[in-house]
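Notebook p. 47: complex prediction with zinc ion.
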Amino acid sequence: MLKYLLLTLVVSFSAHGTLSFKWLGTTTFALSDGKTTLLFDPSLTYVSVLDFLPWRTIQTDPREVDYWFNRCGINKVDAVFVNHAHYDHVIDAPYVVKRYGGKLFGSSSTANVGLGGGLKNDQVETVKPGKEVRLGEFSIEFFNTPHSPHFWDVMLADGHITAPLIPPVNVMDYRVGDTFSFLIKHPKGAILYQAIGRVDTPDTLKEAKADVLLLTLANRRSTEELIDGRVLRTGAKKVIPLHHDNFLLPKPRDGTIKVLWGQKLEEFETTMKARAPGVGLIWPKYCAKEVIAQ
Ligand SMILES: [Zn+2]
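Predicted complex, structure tokens below:
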């Protein structure tokens, strides 16, 4: 009888898994509650600065994707979400859906990357701002947050992908399309993935509240703007920065994080301590499991 009771306890405890986050570099990350795994912005393929030359082409590198998925212990995916269709957020999305499962959600440009990469119509869903997707105990809401210019008012690979994009293609063929941020709700907690480094006016996420904020640092307009407009406004207890590692260099396999040029991480950390002293700042490590909620 005691054995039976203990077994029941163990089974019911393990059924209530923790809500966890794993980072795979740039803005590629997985969220899982032990039953459902969501994968965002799959981009593991190494693309060098030389690949930006107009005559060069790029395509997904399955070995690199499999290496990092295997290292992070991800063997099944229930859905793939893409915030915008630049290559450093979407290049591996078709391969991930084909190899690890799930369905691809994103803009019409992202859908065209999926279709060009060999996904079938029922493996791709085009979404609009305000859309909410439910998967297991997760709900994922899409917000319109336009991409920032790369320098001055110039944005590289601007516009939309209007037909299936069949690789190999040039970096600039991955046109930005619509850009989303995501509010991810789960009975254990809410997570906001802020996919761009600025707070717009009007701010579509003004009312969004979250326990954890996944915050894009790359291309940020001002640290103060992100902290006041996003960290403090959401009421987040934890902030996990993203997109601060150097995706233009090969990802080191020894766990070192090479910082993207011009990211000023110390300035970000110092400003966080001054303006949001009660908020935990967690610098992610590749494949390390971060428990967001028990
Ligand atoms: Zn981009």
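Notes: The domain at 19-293 is CATH 3.60.15.10 (Metallo-beta-lactamase; Chain A). The chain has one domain: 19-293.
Next step: compare against the earlier run before touching the bench.
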